[in-house]
What does this fold into?
Amino acid sequence: MSSSGLVPGSGPDRPEDCALLVLDDAGTVLACTGVAAELLGIPAARINGRGVGELLTEPGDWARLRGLAPDDLPRSMRASLRGAGGPAPVQLDLLPLDGTLPARFLLRMTAAGVADRREENEALVGALFSQSGIGLAIHDTELRLMRVNPLPGDLRPGRAGRAGGLGRRIGELLVPEDAAVVEAQLRRVATTGEPLIDFVTSARLARAPERDRTISLSALRLSGAKGAVRGVAVTFTDVTEHERARKHAALVGTAASALGRSLEVSRNAQVLADLLVPAFADLAAVDITEAVLVGEEPGAFATGAPLCRAAAVAADGEWPDELYPSGSVIRVRGYESDRLRLGSAVIVADLDELRPRIADDPDRIRLVLTDRAASYMVVPLQARGHVLGAVSVWRGRDRAPFDAQDAAVAEDIGSRAALAIDNARRYTRERRTAETLQRSLLPRPQLKVTAAETAGIYVPGRTLAGTGGSWFDVITLSSSRVAFVVGHVRGYGLNAAATMGSLRTAVRTLCDLDPPPDELLTHLDDLVVRFAEDEQPGGGEGTVRGASCLYAVYDPVSARCKMASAGHAAPVLARAAGGAARVELPAGPALGREGAPFEPVEVELAPGDLLAFAAGSLSTESGGSGHMAEFLGKEAARGAGRPVPEIGREMLVPFLAEPPDDDAALLLARVAVTREDAVAAWEFPADVKLVAQARAEIARQLTRWGLDDLVFTTELIVSELLTNAIRYAGGPVGVRLIRDHRLVCEVSDPSQTQPHLRRARVTDEGGRGLFLIAQLTHRWGSRYTASGKTLWTEQLLPEGLGQ
It folds into this structure.
């Protein structure tokens, strides 16, 4: 193989550039090639028989060439030919011939320019194969190593057998998986002729497979005469340290972008473990203090403090049985505690040296030792001066043991992970606080009154940004009526939860006045405007302005439900007789937008009808509003009358499979209707003489109900209220008794003037009526009606007589 083929732009000596002459002992030309005639410009026949000195411009050159010492053979010198176009510089190379024939010498004449290029090529190839900075190798067509420059001792392909691994295939020099990659690339070069430039690949030596080795490989095809493929020339540079630094930088960059995306402590721990395996280690475990996992302040890290293994990842997917698995609680000893507090990585480069020292300590063995690892490193997780936990990594025997450079990278990643975990801890704490406050401000999840059986479910959002806005409430009103309330507050977290609590309190306060739903929302709208001004003096939105609310009042006596909405979605009504649809209720403007009045809607219900009120993400079509109507329609078709809480839980199964970021609230109410025989009503004209008749009617009705023990007090209550109504409001006056879980007594008159409870002086002749009623009843109050007002009282029934 000609080495000149290694230099682009040159090739092997061409026949037209080199002439051969056969000479006898006297220097006479016995024969020559056709090129000699071209160089000299005379026919070959005239060259044969002439002395070689005659062909040179300096005849003495032949004598000087022949006179060179024999040790210098082949003898070479520069001379000048007598060419047809003038002197032609050439390189003369004289080679002796042995034998009995007259021919004694073979003289090669090469054009000087061609000879210069050949010498340059040979010098270049010699320099390349003599240096050791850049690897240079020649492989034949079978990819056997034919020639290689002297590499540093630790990088030589092999020492056993043939020198430097000459004659051996790549598969004998490198580990199989690395050899397969290199051979595939070189075969492509040999087949296609397309050069390979700076191909970076792993090239671990077969005699040291545990040592990482990365090379940058370039290759080109070697072609001989007539284009025949002679092999592949390869240059390669060891870039192990550079590639290691690049991989470490890439790993740190990946950690910077991956860690902190989640605001869950356990999720960040899992991301950290997945990041380290297999890129950095074969096994990785992340241990977090119990306080951090639940969102509490980590506090001072003490010896024996419990750590929970939040994540454990193995490269092959099988965690070693001899190590603590994920979910285990670990209590570290004094040495480990001290090292964690110091904040720097601890490396055990060879676990075999550690085994005898902890052979009698099963806890430490389970913490560190595994047959699948040869080296170990533990990195503390510290943030803001507190120990949050530790990350442990192991490497097998086929990988280089951990070193100081690995420790620096692990500490960098560990500091980023600790900050992400601490941020998640703080977020968890704030979210739990907001969720706890939110739940504490909501009513009991289940309530059963005469008017309805209810079940409320609150679903917090996946993030803090989705917690604190949605709410519901069930409020018992006078005369066995019940109010259903749902709403949603803008904003999130503690502010939203506090705003929700303010709105719920405001609604309950307004309920004491017992206004119709549309009037209550009007009053609530005024309050929201004032709340917003207090919250944002400059007129900003805040968290309260723009809140939505739906208020509905159900009367089990009339079996009618009146409702109004302030920017809230209408409820779904599932009829006990079958079918479910959304109530035709105008949404109205949101609270604080000063868009009142609100339009009320009244719906007639039947026993067993089910109302579903939704708030937050559940009230949107994408969140599950359409699913609610479909589900309740199927539920109504069953006709089984399942418990309301069970229906609510089953309805939310699809919703909870992928809960949205925003929170949600669901309030279900199955209504009941008061029996006709539990209600008695009379109407009396404005005549004081009829009070005695009213007392008699009341007594007879209570006797029929078996409430004789309440006759006296009820007669006294009716007598007082009826007398005052006739005296101050005129008539007609209505009286109604409702036997519920309490005895309700109502007196209605046409006046809009509300009575006031006051303390009468000793000398006063009147003013003690309402004070007496307050002492005789469990609760009492008054409400406005379309035709005046109604005063009502509630008395507790004797034990065992309640519905």
